[in-house]
């Protein structure tokens, strides 16, 4: 069902994003030009702005949502609402969502210019030189019961109103207006975590590009065992992403585990090594986050040792256990506790550290464990799971490998997935077999 949509991609937006096959550089030719990317981003934003605010504001009980950003110190949520050609706010930009009842939610820009096609300009400096007073007049005209602002103790991405801008805002409001101010934390998180239909039509193609880059890097084209280092591969990934006119949102990590040596290691790659990569790209403002394993075949080997394959299968099983616990309304902490209990009951040694993904690699939404804390995460872990959200299913299991003298290895996987409220689907599949690298 979900997989049938993978190659629909840009069809509804009038843009063709062709199917990608991993083979050579030609397989990436369908990546859009910068001009077409801006058009695609605008279409995605317009769909969000015309469908989500009314639903989410009413769900969270907020009548007016006020977002304030200054050039180069933007509220991160404002950046998700700017047109595809915008790289920052202009001077001070104030965006206002107002629930106008039967007319729905309207967008206003208390700024010198309209912002995109949704936010109508509502400030004329010749009539009212004070921008804050112009905002106060707009609030007075609409008389909302609640005014949401982006302040949060738990979610950095929902805490975008800077102290100076907060002071400017409250100083311009009447006592009655100030009494209506509430935190828009839940609304801000909801905006960031909710994926739209068009986003989920293109997301598989974006994740597939990331998967193809990983596969290209974990191949004989890049890795010559005995010569190539993990650092070489890391920088190859950086250069390859640039060649494709894409961006990474963190520096790739490449390590290996080796028979007889403990831990995640770096250095020269040798036959018999179990490689690991952590890699993510940003494209059309959406992010990927993937961890996969490869095995460097020894001379005469055709397949990896059984213990390594079983280790990967164990982490696949842990993935299944985790996503089977995804239920609307459950908190991240509840999901974590239930998944760990089931996994431990099956004899798995689990570590779960799954996070939302979308406009940000480490997105806003329920935190489901942390690598350094397998207990409750206060605040972010107490946030509930909602439908139409995306996650990086990030975790590992520790497995004893008989062929390596019982050495305990960590099989660390991370794949992007979408939860529709009933089921969880891997956006472009998941790794179920080790990538194989031949020795020269």
Describe the protein.
The protein is α+β, with helices and mostly antiparallel strands. It has two domains: 147 residues, Creatine Amidinohydrolase, Chain A, domain 1 (3-Layer(aba) Sandwich), CATH 3.40.350.10; 240 residues, Alpha-Beta Complex (Creatine Amidinohydrolase). Helices cover 30% and strands 22% of the residues. The strands form four sheets. The protein has a six-stranded mixed beta sheet with strand order 4-3-2-1-5-6. Strands 9-8-10-13-19 form a five-stranded mixed beta sheet. Strands 14, 15, 16, 17 and 18 form a five-stranded antiparallel beta sheet that branches. A hairpin with a 5-residue loop joins strand 16 and strand 17. The two termini are 41 Å apart. The N terminus is likely disordered.
CATH class of the largest domain: Alpha Beta
Tell me what the CATH architecture of the largest domain is.
Alpha-Beta Complex
The residue-averaged pLDDT reads 91
| Helical residues, percent | 25-40%
Distance between the termini: 41 Å
CA radius of gyration is: 24 Å
Predict the CATH topology of the largest domain. Creatine Amidinohydrolase
Strand order of the largest sheet: 4-3-2-1-5-6
Number of strands: 19
SSE run: HEHEEEHEHHEHHHEEEEEEEHHEEEEEE
Strand content: 15-25%
Oligomer: single chain
Number of helices: 10
Unreliable segments (pLDDT under 50, ≥5 consecutive)? 1-27
Shape: elongated
Q: What's the domain count?
A: 2
> What structural class results from the helix and strand content?
alpha+beta
The CATH homologous superfamily name of the largest domain equals Creatinase/methionine aminopeptidase superfamily
> What composes the largest sheet?
6 strands, mixed
